[in-house]
Hints:
By secondary structure, chain B is α/β, with parallel strands linked by helices. Chain B contains eleven helices and 13 strands. The longest helix of chain B is centred in the last third of the chain and has 30 residues. By secondary structure, chain C is an all-alpha fold. Chain C is built from 16 helices and no strands. Chains A and C meet through α7 and α10 of A and α12 of C.
Amino acid sequence: MKQIKNMKNIRKIFLICACLIIYVYYAAAMLDEKPIEEYDISSGFGVDLYRDGAGTVKYSIPFSILVFKGENRQYSMIKTGEAPTGAETRQNRQLKTDKQFLIGSQKIMLFSESLVRYGLKYNADIQFNNTKINDRGIILVCEGRTEDILRYKVKGYASSPEYIEGMIKNSMANDFFSREYTILNMYVRLDTEGRNLVLPYMKISDKGLEITGLALFKGDKMVNKVDVEEGKFMNMMRDDDLIGYLSIQKNSDEFMNFYGNTKKRVKCNKVKEGYEFEIIIDIKGDVIANTLYKEFNGKTKKELEETLSKDVEKKCSEFVNKMQNEYKLDCLELGMYAVAKYGRDTGVDWNEVVSNSVIKVKANVKVDKVGRGAY
Amino acid sequence: MKKYKNFIFIIILIIFVVYLRAGEERMENIEELEIAVGIGYSVKEDVGGGIKYMLPINSVVYQENGVNVSTVRTGTASTIALTRGERQRKSDRKFFLGTERLYIIDEGIGRFGVTNTIDTLFRNPMVNDDGFCVICKGKSEEYLKYKIPGYDTPVDYITGMIRNAPSYNFFQKNYRIKDVYLMVGSEGRSLALPYIELNEKGVQITGMAIFNKDKLAAILDIEDSKTMNILRSDRGKGMLTIQGNERDFISYYAKCKRKVKCNKEGDKYKFIIDLKFNGDVVNNVMYKKLSSKVEVKEKFEKDMEKKIEARCYEFIDKMKSQHKADCLELGRIAVAKYGRETGVDWDDVISNSDIKVNVKVKVEKVGRGEY
Amino acid sequence: MDKSKYHLLSDSEAVSILAGLMIGVGFLALPNQVAKDAKNDAGIATIIGGLYPLYFAMLSIYYCKKHPNEDILKLSKRYLGNIVGVICNILFMVQFLIYLAAGANGYKNVLITYATQFLSPMRVFIIVISIGAYVNFVGLKPLARINKIALFLTVIVTSILSMSLIRGRYLNLLPIFGTGITKIIKGSLESAYAYSGMEGVLLLYPLMKNKDKIAAISLKATALVIGVYSWIVFMSIYYLGYKVTVKTLWPVLLVTESADLPFINSFRLVFILFWSLNVLKLVANEYYAVVYIIQDTLKIKKSKHRNIIILGVIPIAIYLCLKLGEEVQRREILNYIVPKIILFNIIYASVIAIFIFINDKINKKSIG
């Protein structure tokens, strides 16, 4: 009996020791991990590029940090790291901050115009490598220094990135902005053949923080920008399933507002002289405000639909013209359709080909609801 | 008698308790105490040619409503101990030592010699040995008075900086007062502390201050500090970058381990420092196909090894010729092998010894792929 | 229940184990490997790659019909002679050992890149190999049940990937066959590593309860795996396009970003959790194959001795894991070794099949 008991005891002791050793072995790996209070929680960051006195390129990456006092969010602070290369800014920033960094909670990323005109890919690589980054974070290009925008105090908001998030959501609901201005989409569009990157553009104006348009990219460099109105039509031809407002204004007394949802299709044909594209946009929506038509019946409804359709076609064609002659860019991603039909990696420069091809735009507007009647 | 037993027992108990509590000083509530959080050490030239110690103390009164008041009071006197009395005269509350988290020592004192300062701290048993110790540019009072929105006192911010610094730049975790005692007092060791500066953007660590015995030998900039930290400490974490031209660079974040071997040949000492780096490539636009071809990865490892070696040798030369101090604490290794208290001046000896550095670099992770 | 048949594999368990031998670490990286050559037709290449497990499924049906109670180890000793047969068996075992280490190593790489940066490789290996060993202590039936659960989870997780149907572009898949047949075939060869494991069927069919159902079982397993694999490759190309797929080491994880689940912030970590079970199961499976072959070669029947073998494999496995290094090295080593293994398997199994055929004919002649 005693022998069995001894065996059992020895086994128990052995088991306990083994457990302790295993626990210590793995806990040792966690020694460097710290509780959440020791981390900077950031709602957004910016990437800037400037040249210092000697002409060397320097990256400046400010983070907007939320400072908690007790359990309440009190302030937002900006902590910036500066270095000749992107990753080194982390090391530089650690010299200035009292907490450790947590990358991955950021919903907004601001790239300064100076950075995007220089080229995005040096920065894209560091985001791509970092597994903690929030791939669904939204990117915006901003005029001036990102630090100024991050410092900008908006009433009622702890920090500007939260306000910017709201702004973008609004644009997605009103200006036919795509839902895909995310980091993940940046990776995809930067490198896929026939695809093209476009990002929202914002600045600090006299109205405060404002999204004023969209930045157009050639490869990974920004080359142009369009304002929001023009951008609406570019977006309609470029992305699918967007919503926003359209309006017709004859004069200050007669106008009509239409809120619709767009869907597009593209047909592509290769002819002897090059390529032919046809973009068909179907818009379905409701009339929101109307002082243009006295009453709505079958005839006026059709008239309205035709007017709107022609209007959209006209504005789209104007944009296409500008795109082909001025920008010389395939910002409608038409190359993607050609590639799908005629083969990849053929060495074609789609920006050039599309600028020289025939592009037809057709719009079909359908009015669903017309409100309660005319006033 | 039995009935009264309990009664008598209670009486005796009461007398006993009253006796014990009678001699007690009345303890104040925490709201009435100024809790010292940071102490600065400065010197200034006195009119008569001597020097005066200025010790600003930053203390916080913690109030119930959460609004905590931070004040700085400075005591000036000819010795550190006397400053205490001088300061107390300016305050209306009782001082409470033992809770300080930060000791800021002026660059000025560094040049003068830190022995007195360290000695005073060492003697006082109330001193919080876990407090951090840093060297500052300018006057320590400025740092303690600096207001940072969202923080009760700048001491919170600065201690956070030092505490979290080890995650980059190969900083160590031994910048506390208890470590300083050892660094100054032990044979073969030397003092090195973080150096902070205050500018319009705020407080920032800008390098390391290295000492020759108890006097400041040099202030190293951040790049030299990184190299020194790599060579000086057994373990460290930080980032190293190779940059070709503007658009070609690669950054590597690694843990570093150090082993030192010491040999004596005649009168000359030879040291071999083995450094092992193990880390990840975090940003790469220079080595194409690093994440798909082993040979590219190995080339990078070799290139990085050469870079680090070059950097180390450059620093060691500087150390031997300019600073003439054993800031790598190599003396410690020699002492362990060849005996203590032999009267050797290690700073001198190391400056004339042969130091070789071997570097091994290993890449563990390459991220999610290559863009 | 028929007690003597309890320890045999039921139909569903057999299907699960076979699928479980194939689905493992390669799951996450598969689109990357195939798209390198097949580009946008990687999905088609993956389906073509399914010919490999299909071949083994066919072989297993044939083996089982002719020798329902003898697995390939016994058959190789019988037909190739004791010496050559045993050598081939040992080589057969070595491949499972390699796959074991490759699986654990690949898992370690994903885990410390995405989830637990602070763990060192050794710590991950100790846990993974220990769990593999532990499952083997308890035997075949529990192993089969784990496979069943893992298969179930795999199918669920793969279906969740379909969320990216909303966000992707079918254009990424076009033009179909635009890449050219040669490149597509090259791509299908790359998928071979992912499909490897099916050879295990030649060890397992004697352990099945209903040997007459072998056709249904092995074909079902093959079809399931081909389905799962081609689906994830299609999804990856559909959502990311082939260029980005080629750039990412683990494209499937990037696709999980597209999953916009209501209350889960990052589906990626949930995915890693579920998929961890898969890898542990794969390691346990390979472990079982290794131990089984060693047991057979050394003619060991006692369970106590079997346990010693299991323990003995632990250090060997950990050593191999460490040798494989990190992901770049691992892929390069595998790229070198796997084609040779596959070739060996095909030749080995086919030669034995030929021998069975000849033997059969001879017997028929002598009978009839």
